[in-house]
Automatic annotation (TrEMBL), chain A:
Gene Ontology molecular-function annotations: heme transmembrane transporter activity
One family name in Pfam for this protein: CcmB
Organism (species): Prauserella flavalba
Protein name: ABC transporter permease
Transmembrane segments: 32-52, 64-83, 104-127, 139-161, 173-194, 200-222
From TrEMBL, chain B:
InterPro entries (alphabetical): AAA+_ATPase, ABC_transporter-like_ATP-bd, ABC_transporter-like_CS, ABC_Transporter_VariousFunc, P-loop_NTPase
Transport keyword on record: yes
Gene3D superfamilies: P-loop containing nucleotide triphosphate hydrolases
Name by which UniProt lists this protein: Transcriptional regulator
Residue spans crossing the bilayer: none
Pfam family, one: ABC_tran
Keywords in alphabetical order: ATP-binding, Nucleotide-binding, Transport
PANTHER family: ABC TRANSPORTER ATP-BINDING PROTEIN ALBC-RELATED
Source domain of life: Bacteria
Keyword Transferase appears in the UniProt entry: no
GO MF, one annotated term: ATP binding
Domain ABC transporter residue range list: 12-226
Length: 229, 226, 241
């Protein structure tokens, strides 16, 4: 009979440990929140320079621009260099008996936490620059984590697919961004519906369904991706 | 304590294995057996495929031809998932996270594999790195990282130990660590496969020697000109 | 079956059908409102049909690869995606050219148009992923995973933009009752759809044959005769130079 040297902890423990490690690495590298977030803020600042500082216009396009920036720059957060394991580290994790799905789940968890922080950092910037209509703002509370999770899963998947390839950040982004279109729509339409006193539930539900679908798809794909990593 | 294992227990069997890395054939027609308690030294010229062999034994690289078993698991199948925690690979590239301290690295591994954090600290202590435990891996010398890797092996308590460039970067005082680590594995009924260019030292450590030549493993009873 | 699909007959039938389709598109009556511009429909619609068909085939063969791990599935998936990207691009460009005189704009934010554009970029990403991966097994594996995830997303993208806004002209052919299109025009359209489907099969077959040759080339270079990695390393020449 084969013997495993110790009682390996459950997948949830392992996932939490991996996420904790990722977050600690990000804390020390400061890549997502100290580099990518300011970069996103710069993008928000540049748009009015390009389209004109017409206050009513900016007020109208503000929320949409915010979510586009969250999507485009959030992808960079998920593809950050500090979340790339070298071959030696990957070998070590694999030999620790970490199942590929658990490895992806840990990365997703860390990504989601970082993305929520990223969204929260950019929110005051967008409000200050665009002065958007904030009626219906409580809908942002479920929206932030839902969008973050969806983007986190897609980013994890793209990162795994583009692992070790030339131009992985651009390739990863190209793989994710078109597929994330419904997330942007869901986010902007939830808020628009709330503003016009229509039921935002449908759009929120759409985001939730997308999240669940890509979680399931990624979990099923995890085992397949293992050998290529 | 694991039950004592009879000497005939097979840890590794490779039969006529061929391995291709990035489209380049590296190993071809390689056959190798390693039994419990044994330590096998591997020598060969640069680029002959020694490190590739270790990756195959670690179940991280599947052969394109032939078949093999490691710790009972058929290579290239899902069976390898179950046996991986019993394998430790120390490659020639450090596997620690550069931005974590040595202690954080080892404690992370301990928690990930269900061991107490104290075991990680003990392992650091044993390799003489306890005072440097709070130093980030990126700030450590090559030799310190090698010692930390050996601490990782002590923590993992593998049944199959795979050591690449076993003596590289270690000072005279710590070179004995390699032997300690290998002995511990053998005592628990495991086996070691060790690659080193320091042939005299390797011959002292290993029960037998093989050379990788023309993609195959051949017995190397005499000194091999490397 | 294979003989029929892969025999010379397919080429003959394909060429005949394409010529017939072209002639029919020329002689079909012009649209009462749009005039001759409307003839673009006979390419635009079949191209769009091929786009969906090829990506569905890519999905099917990606699943097939993950299930069976046979190289043939990977070849079909890749070939179909390449053909699909070409016809998606063609459908978008023709749609744009058709849209300008008809709707007065080059681009419209209609759900079907947006979905098709998203699909174009998704599968461009698929091809980029294939190009970037050197190892053939890793390439097959990664692109199969992406091929599945991508197509699963396509209906979601479509539904979300449908709910967002709907402007595109409602279905004229695939709806219950009498199609609201002239019968000659309908026949011409169907003929062209058939002809393009045959063209798709021809292109798919050609691309797959090419892939087989490419793989054979790779295999020969990997064959028994190929040098082992270690043989490229010689002992250094230490004697005085």
């Amino acid at each position: 009979m084969r013997q495993v040297p110790s009682a390996t902890p459950g997948p949830i423990r392992q996932c939490a440990e991996l996420a904790r490690k990722d977050l600690r690495l990000e804390l020390r590298a400061g890549e997502a929140l100290l580099v990518t977030a300011p970069f996103g803020a710069v993008a928000l600042l540049l748009v009015p320079l390009a389209i004109g500082s017409d206050a009513p216009l900016l007020r109208q396009v503000g929320p949409g621009l915010y979510w586009v920036v969250v999507l485009l720059f959030g992808v960079l957060v998920t593809l950050r260099q500090s979340a790339v394991e070298g071959p030696a580290q990957l070998a070590m994790l694999r030999l620790c008996g970490v199942h590929p799905a658990v490895r992806l789940a840990g990365r997703t968890l860390a990504n989601a936490v970082l993305l929520v922080a990223f969204e929260l950092l950019l929110t005051p910037v967008a409000i200050a620059l665009y002065d958007p209509d904030l009626s219906g703002w409580p809908w942002l509370l479920p929206l932030f984590p839902l969008i973050a999770v969806g983007l986190a899963v897609l980013g994890t998947l793209a990162s795994a697919l583009a692992h070790g390839l030339a131009g992985r950040t651009t390739l990863g982004a190209l793989l994710v961004v078109p597929l994330a279109a419904p997330l942007v729509l869901g986010a902007t339409q939830t808020l628009a519906a709330a503003r016009y006193a229509r039921q935002p539930w449908a759009w929120l539900f759409l985001v939730l369904v997308i999240d669940l679908l890509i979680i399931v798809a990624t979990a099923l794909a995890a085992r397949q991706l293992e050998e290529s990593a | 304590m694991p039950s004592p294992v009879s000497a005939s227990d097979s840890i590794v069997t490779l039969m006529d294995v061929a391995v291709v890395v990035e489209r380049v054939p590296v190993l071809r027609g390689l056959t190798l057996g390693v039994t419990a308690g044994e330590s096998v030294g591997v020598v060969g010229a640069n680029g002959s495929g020694k490190s590739t062999l270790l990756r195959v034994l670690a179940t991280l690289l599947a052969p394109v031809r032939g078949h093999g078993r490691v710790l009972g698991a058929e290579l290239g199948t899902d069976e390898s998932f179950a046996v991986r925690p019993g394998i430790a690979l120390v490659g020639h590239v450090p596997s620690l996270y550069p931005r974590l301290t040595l202690r954080e690295n080892l404690r992370f591994l301990a928690r990930l594999t269900g061991r107490r954090e104290q075991a990680a600290d003990d392992a650091l202590e044993l390799v003489g790195l306890a005072p440097a435990g709070d130093r980030r891996a990126e700030a450590c010398s090559q030799g310190m990282l090698r010692r930390a890797e050996l601490a990782r092996v002590l923590l993992a308590q593998p049944r199959l130990l795979l050591l690449d460039e076993a003596h590289a970067g270690l000072d005279d005082g710590s070179i004995g660590l390699v032997e300690v680590v290998i002995r511990r594995v053998s005592e628990r009924g495991g086996a070691s496969v060790i690659v080193s260019h320091d042939q005299p030292r390797l011959r002292d450590l290993a029960d037998r020697m093989v050379e990788i030549r023309n993609g195959q493993a051949v017995p190397a009873d005499e000194e091999v000109p490397a | 079956m294979t003989r029929i699909l892969f025999g010379r007959r397919l080429t003959v039938v394909g060429v005949v059908a394409m010529s017939a389709g072209l002639v029919a598109a020329m002689v079909a009556p012009p649209d009462r409102v749009q005039g001759d511009v409307q003839r673009l429909m006979y390419i635009h619609v079949p191209a769009a049909w091929l786009a969906y068909l090829s990506f569905a085939v890519t999905l099917g063969s990606s699943v097939g690869w993950l299930w069976r791990r046979t190289a043939r599935y990977d070849r079909v998936a890749a070939a179909s995606a390449e053909v699909g990207v070409f016809f998606t691009g063609l459908a978008i460009v023709l749609g744009s050219i058709w849209g300008k005189p008809t709707w007065g704009v080059w681009w419209t934010w209609d759900p079907r148009v947006v979905t098709t554009a998203v699909m174009f970029f998704v599968y461009l990403g698929y091809l980029a992923l294939r190009r970037a991966t050197v190892d053939s097994v890793a390439r097959a594996r990664r692109s199969a995973v992406f091929g599945v995830v991508a197509f699963v997303q396509v209906p979601i993208v479509h539904m979300s933009v449908v709910w967002w806004r709907a402007l595109h002209q409602p279905p004229t052919v695939l709806k219950p009752g009498d199609p609201s299109i002239d019968h000659v025009m309908l026949a011409t359209l169907l003929l062209n759809v058939l002809a393009f489907t045959l063209l798709y099969l021809l292109l798919l077959r050609a691309r797959m044959r090419l892939a087989v040759v490419e793989e054979e080339l790779e295999r020969t270079s990997l064959g028994e005769g190929q040098e082992l990695a270690g043989n490229a390393v010689l002992a250094p020449r230490l004697e005085r130079s």
